[in-house]
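Q: Given only this backbone (145 positions), what sequence would you predict?
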């Protein structure tokens, strides 16, 4: 996926998304920002890498049941696999982060307000490379609001 968007250590217990925080206004950004503070009322400050909260609450969700049209790039001969997208609110950072649900988690398994956690996932792999991404997975026994 994109270098620097999450930790290199893909063990579930330590895997985290990485953002940046402005030293001047304390705004947190994801995807990370390494050039300037995106807060329009901030004069700017040093941007420091910060791990984002591991858990959040489902803000919204939907499923993708069809192959997107061009210019989306995919192998037309490959069977299309439906997927679930989850928008998760990270309370401490006051932001919503979008990502795919973990394999086996569908829209029937989700509710708004449900607690979820970020876990490593596989975007694609071949004989030489595994491309890592992040997924959102319901927390076992996690409370719903």
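A: Predicted residues:
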């Amino acid at each position: 996926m994109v270098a620097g968007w999450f930790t290199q250590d893909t063990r579930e217990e330590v895997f985290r998304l990485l953002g940046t925080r402005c030293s001047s206004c304390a705004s947190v950004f994801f995807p990370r920002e390494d050039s300037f503070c995106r807060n329009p009322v901030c004069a700017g400050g040093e941007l420091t890498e910060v791990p984002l909260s591991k858990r959040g609450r489902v803000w919204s969700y939907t499923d993708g049941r069809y192959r997107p049209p061009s210019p989306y790039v995919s192998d037309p001969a490959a069977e299309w696999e439906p997927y679930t997208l989850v928008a998760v609110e990270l309370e401490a950072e006051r932001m919503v982060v979008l990502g795919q649900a973990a394999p086996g988690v569908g829209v029937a398994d989700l509710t708004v307000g449900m607690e979820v956690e970020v876990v490593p996932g596989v975007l694609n792999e071949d004989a030489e490379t595994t491309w890592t991404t992040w997924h959102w997975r319901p927390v076992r026994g996690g409370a719903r609001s």
